[in-house]
Each structure stands twice: as C-alpha cells, then as structure tokens.
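@channel anyone free to eyeball this complex?
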Amino acid sequence: MGPKHTLPGLPDRGRCLVMGVVNVTPDSFSDGGAWFDPGRAIEHGTRLVEEGADIVDVGGESTRPGAQRVSAEEELRRVEPVVRELAARGVAVSVDTMRAEVAERAVEAGAVLVNDVSGGMADPAMARLVASSGVAYVLMHWRGHSHDMQSRAVYTDVVQEVLDELRDRMEAMISAGVDPGQIVLDPGLGFSKRPEQAHNWALLHDLERFHELGRPVLVAGSRKRFLSRLLSDPKERPFTECDAATAAVTTLSADRGAWAVRVHDVRPNADAVRVAAAWSDGGARLDEGRAEPMDRGGL
Ligand code: PMM
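replying in thread with the prediction:
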C-alpha cells in the first residue's frame, strides 16, 4: 500500500477509496444516456453508495474522444440538482467539470471535490476558485479538448512526460494560491493516450512513480478502450463487458497505493479494494473489529 493522505471533506477509510460515476449526459463514453434524467441520476448515485462507493462523481459533459462541448448553462442544468440532492442525502459528492463557474455552483450545492480532467488548463478561472473554496481538487493529465486529444498522444517517454506535465500543472495551481493539501493527481488514462499503443499500460506499470509527486493518486481506467482492446477476440470487447478487467485494475492499483479509483460498476470494485486492504494488512482490521459492513444502505 502507498503513502497515507487525508483530503479536506473526504472520508479516510484506511484503504483505497471508490469513486462511483454518475454521468448526467446523453452521450458519455461508457454509460451514455442511462442517467440523463436528474431523478434517475439521483437514484443511481444513492444506489452506488449502497453498493460501497465512498464518493459519487457527477458529470454533465461527456469527454469521450471526439465529443463536442456543451454550454455552461446546460452543464449546470444537468449537474446542480443531482449534486444538491445527493449531498443532502449525506453523500460525499464530486463534480466532474472543467468550468470554474460550474465547479463554484456545485460546491455551493454541497460538492466536496472538484474533478477537473483538464488540470486547470481549460478554464483560467479554475485555480482561483479552487484556492478560494478550499475544496479537494483532482488535477488530471490533459493535453487538449476531446475533439482532437488523440492527435496529441505523441510521447518519447510517456511516464516521464506525464509526471513532468503533472508536476508543472501542480506548481501552476500552487502559484495561483491552491494549497498542495487540496490536490489529487490523475495520470488521465485514455486522455491523449492511445489504446493501440502501450501508453496506458506503461502508466499503470509505473504507477508507484507517481508517489514521487507527494500527492494522492486517482486511477480512472473503468471501461476505457485500452481494456476493450486488450480483451479483443478479435473484435473489441464492448465497454460494459470490461467490468471484471476494471476490477483487476482496481485491485492492482489499490495494492500499489492508489488513493482512489473512479469506476462505473461499483460493487466489484468495492469488493476489490477491501480484498486489497485485507491482503495488505493480513486481516489486522478484522482482528481489531474495524472491518466495515459492506452495505451502508440509508447512508
Ligand atoms: N475519465 C472520464 C471522465 N472523468 N475524471 C478523472 N479524474 N479521470 C478520468 O480518467 C476521467 C474522468 C471519461 O470516462 P467516462 O465518460 O467513461 O466516465
């Protein structure tokens, strides 16, 4: 297991956390359309917590390769009621947005984490908002918007370049007033990383090197194309049939010290992080009576 980190407003369970995904979009990468209605999104988020999610990540803009942007008004219309109601139900809510305006309204509605796939690059106002609000912030490795991000997937040494670019972005956020203790780093699997090349696997293989940066690490491989491709037979495996592979990535990431994993199908991943924790401490938590009950129904 890796270094211990506690983030403001977020649970500390002494193991890798599970972030369950609720995409309130008609066109997301892996669960597009399923939770587009706010009422269904709220019920889905609540169910993810019952299945073992520690955090629920609510997003209103698809980042699938080639996706076009939606307006800030539309993004807010999608996410705000879902964030507000889940937070009111006692859920630790994260908002998946690149826009400071959306992040600000979501924090006012109760979000405790801003998950910015652009690492502060898409909106120059993001750093100020994160600094002034004091919320936890996921800074992901990013090289550009979805419409052309794969053309930027050119690396000589993918691990070193992703590490260097994350360090630069982190320093930029800190210069703008963000406290280093707010920051979580994410290598950005699938974002300007080609599934037909080794980019994503090289980053996972060297995951422990990301601890060099001194901040917690989030791994978000769930249902991504590098898994579909690995499991081709010879046709690429559909995204929704990659959940066992996602759970394998979760187990290995938890063992190598990931702070959290971001996943669509929560139950197998909630199981996986508990297995990794029990394996790592030899069952000490069971002996001490600290093992968690799996079902936190009623939150
Ligand atoms: N990937 C997606 C959306 N949000 N957030 C973080 N921090 N890291 C990611 O890799 C990431 C993300 C795209 O996946 P989805 O549309 O399948 O949820």
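from a first look: The chain is about 35% helix and 10% strand.
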